[in-house]
């Protein structure tokens, strides 16, 4: 990931009604994500006091477009991580030929019993297929 892959998040302070085809409407409290690479003539720190028009995504409506930077406040940086595979809700069928591979405790000494365990992952992501949050349960 490069520094230009970072995104900034903003929170809408005021209502804005779309005026042009490329604009997006805002409601107070909307969260907006703006790619750092989309900021023109960006200087470090400019994200904290946006001026002019910003181009981003309204996370509530999933609309992408332009909105006035003076209608929002800076909320923070979003760093994109590596995508994580989504859990598969179906059990895997037996391997043809009767052999089965499993993940879990290795061979046990005579008389010992292996503890049964499983790990479940729930992951949520954005429309671009990037995972933003995962919860693991054992």
Overall description:
This protein has 138 residues and is mostly beta strands. The protein folds into two domains: 3-78, SH3 Domains (SH3 type barrels, Roll), CATH 2.30.30; 82-89 and 115-138, no CATH class. 0% of the residues lie in helices and 30% in strands. It contains no helices and seven strands. The protein has strands at 7-12, 31-35, 53-58, 64-68, 72-78, 120-125, 131-137. The strands form two sheets. The protein has a five-stranded antiparallel sheet, with no helix packed on it. The chain has a two-stranded antiparallel ribbon with strand order 6-7. The chain is elongated and about 65 Å long. 11% of the residues are buried. Residues 100-106 have low confidence and may be disordered.
Topology:
Blueprint: E1 7-12, E2 31-35, E3 53-58, E4 64-68, E5 72-78, E6 120-125, E7 131-137
Antiparallel strand pairs: 1-2, 1-5, 2-3, 3-4, 6-7
Brief summary of the model shown:
With 138 residues, this protein is an all-beta fold.
Fold-level CATH name of the largest domain: SH3 type barrels
CATH architecture of the largest domain: Roll
The percentage of residues in β strands lies in 25-35%
Radius of gyration: 23 Å
Q: Label the structural class.
A: mainly beta
- Name the helicity range: under 10%
| Assigned CATH class of the largest domain | Mainly Beta
Low-confidence stretches: 100-106
Topology, number of strands: 7
Number of helices: 0
User: By CATH's scheme, which homologous superfamily of the largest domain applies?
Assistant: SH3 Domains
> How many distinct folded domains?
2
Task: Write the element-wise H/E pattern from the N-terminal end onward.
Answer: EEEEEEE
Span between N and C termini?
30 Å
Mean pLDDT: 74
Shape: elongated
The largest sheet has its strands arranged as: 4-3-2-1-5
Main pleated-sheet profile: 5 strands, antiparallel
InterPro entries: SH3-like_dom_sf, SH3_domain
Region (Disordered): 43-67, 84-113
Biased composition (Basic and acidic residues): 57-66
Keywords: SH3 domain
